[in-house]
TrEMBL record:
The keyword RNA-binding does not apply. Gene3D superfamilies: Homeodomain-like. GO terms for molecular function: DNA-binding transcription factor activity; sequence-specific DNA binding. It comes from Pseudorhizobium banfieldiae. This is AraC-type transcriptional regulator domain protein. It comes from the Bacteria. Residues 199-297 form the HTH araC/xylS-type domain. It holds the Pfam family AraC_N.
Length: 308
């Protein structure tokens, strides 16, 4: 779906607000809780990150997000919803100094969204059953953009944020729960859904990623059989539990080397690797360069690898 004349006034105003509140390339937190604004004036290198549950609305330029071997490309007529913690690779693929990539990201308040889910009657004709992916891509309607605008306009009146931002955010979440991907968003909120069981497994792995574990152990934590865990974990994350653990280990090792001034061998040991050669091999496969070269590149051009 491409932007239509109906979308353009909202997109133009959203672009202006984001441009006014971002001084340079990068990711900027705002005075509105959980809301960040993102601006980049050129394409970026692929950036591996752990993406937490969030709503991302691009208003100018475009981006692709890779989850394992699956690629999601979105621009001003689409928005992305991430429902669980996922190791993803993001890359801005359309941006220039004259027309930078501009995006708003709202980290999801899942308890508040869950309360709304219990209050709202599902729309007729919603698909039923099944476990959805942890990433959803949907068309952005003019009504959805109107709700986003009401939230961002509050940046110009800080005195109103404490009272009005929760109302504007609630309206945006209502649109999410009534939009074309509502059935997928609802699945992530249902207490006994497969997605919630996978979320329990993800939470446990994140807390214990540096230690060896058995699939049976994770399945017990998720209250699933091992075979069911394998199937539905891959459905949601596009990877197995062990592949998920590996990505967490490597991303944490990269963070340690970059921010804690530890060497690669020490970082590898801290995240659970017994073999430095295996660590170096898997690090290079994920990040495209050995640890020393990769971190040197990050330090030289940090803005090109920023979380986007």
């Amino acid at each position: 779906m491409l932007p239509t004349p109906t979308h353009m006034p909202q997109l133009d105003e959203l672009s202006a607000i984001i441009a006014q509140n971002t001084s340079d390339d990068g990711v900027f937190e705002t005075s509105i809780p959980r809301l960040s604004l993102i601006r980049f004036s050129r394409q970026t290198e692929p950036c591996q990150t752990l993406q937490h549950p969030a709503l991302c609305i691009v208003v100018q330029g475009s981006k692709q997000v890779m989850l394992a071997d699956e690629i999601y490309v979105y621009g001003p007529a689409k928005h992305l919803v991430v429902s669980v913690d996922l190791p993803v690779t993001g890359q801005i693929i359309e941006a220039t100094p004259e027309k930078p990539y501009l995006c708003m990201r709202l980290d999801l308040d899942l308890p508040a969204l869950g309360e709304m889910f219990m209050e709202i009657t599902p729309a007729t004709g919603e698909p039923a059953g099944g476990c959805s992916k942890g990433v959803c891509l949907a068309d952005t309607s003019p009504q959805f953009l109107d709700s986003a605008l009401r939230l961002l306009r509050l940046l110009a009146s800080p005195e109103d944020i404490a009272y009005l931002a929760p109302l504007a955010e609630r309206e945006l979440m209502y649109r999410l729960l009534r939009g074309p991907q509502a059935h997928k968003v609802r699945r992530m909120l249902m207490p006994d859904s497969r997605l919630q069981q996978v979320t329990r497994a993800i939470t446990w792995i994140r807390q214990n990623y540096a230690a060896p574990f058995s699939i049976e152990q994770v399945a017990a934590e998720a209250r699933m059989s091992p075979s069911s865990l394998h199937q539905h974990f891959r459905d949601v994350t596009a990877m197995s539990p062990l592949q998920y653990q590996k990505q967490l280990r490597l991303q944490e090792a990269r963070r340690l080397i970059l921010t804690s001034a530890v060497d690669a061998a020490t970082a590898a040991q801290r995240v659970g690797y017994d073999s430095p050669s295996q660590f170096s091999r898997e690090y290079r496969r994920l990040f495209g360069a050995p640890p020393i070269q990769d971190v040197a590149r990050l330090r030289q051009e940090p803005e090109r690898f920023a979380e986007t």
